[in-house]
Amino acid sequence: MEFYTELIKGLWKENPIFRLVLGMCPTLAVTTSLENALGMGLAATFVLICSNVVISSVRNLIPAKVRIPCFIVIIATFVTIVDLVMAGFAPELHKNLGLFIPLIVVNCIILGRAEAFASKNSIFLSIADGIGMGLGFTLGLAILGSVRELLGAGSLTVWGNLKFTIPGYNDPILLMILAPGGFIALGIILGLMNHIQAKSAQRKGTAMPTPVHLDCRHCTICKFGA
């Protein structure tokens, strides 16, 4: 039951993008298409799961004073694997994502889960956390990427030539695939999710849930650096 709880929390309750509001730089930069969003999400999920497992395994061997540098070295190892594999087998996607693949090393979602969860829990639960948060991140990117590509280009690119086009959509909203469109789409989706959560709480007769304690304002990485 605890495994299942950790597995599903990233999909809604603690979604990295829409609830914790983490990883905004790659979120806004790569979601110009569904293909880019899925590529980034799956890459981050792989790194998240693997780094969680390793960090949980060696958590009692790492001195507290050097834990953050050690976490970064572990994460960088898996990011390098992803970068090389993607460059070899999906060069076009690798080119589109560009610098944002290496920057997974310092992604606050990856570091945050390493510090807040994997370093304090068993391998079993760390796997569930990595899968759940990774899928939540991928889902968030996919939703945002789909909205922006559909409105901004009138199409939906899943992978390579696998592309769906809206018939008769001859006047796309170009703004949506530009930088300002990312902020607009993200703001609308965040507002919609807050509205749904507020209505749900109202139906149950409870107060609107407070922000999750692991969101960006309570980041343990930032507190450590300070």
CA-based gyration radius: 18 Å
Written as H for each helix and E for each strand, in order along the chain, the element string is HHHHHHHEEHH
Q: Percentage of helical residues?
A: 55-70%
Q: Output mean pLDDT.
A: 87
Task: State the shape.
Answer: globular
Strand content: under 5%
SS content category: mainly alpha
Q: How many β-strand stretches?
A: 2
Amino- and carboxy-terminal Cα gap: 37 Å
Main beta-sheet annotation: 2 strands, antiparallel
The stretches of 5 or more residues where confidence is low (pLDDT under 50) are none
How would you describe what is shown here?
The chain has helices spanning 2-8, 24-30, 34-58, 67-89, 91-97, 108-118, 123-153, 179-204, 220-225, and strands spanning 155-159, 162-165. It has 226 residues and is mainly α. It has one domain (2-225). Strand 1 and strand 2 (162-165) form a beta hairpin. It is globular.
Features:
226 residues; mainly alpha; two-stranded antiparallel sheet; 63% helix; 4% strand
Summarize this entry quickly.
The protein has 226 residues and is mainly alpha-helical. It has helices at 2-8, 24-30, 34-58, 67-89, 91-97, 108-118, 123-153, 179-204, 220-225, and strands spanning 155-159, 162-165. It has one domain.
Write the layout of secondary structure elements.
Layout: H1 2-8, H2 24-30, H3 34-58, H4 67-89, H5 91-97, H6 108-118, H7 123-153, E1 155-159, E2 162-165, H8 179-204, H9 220-225
Antiparallel strand pairs: 1-2
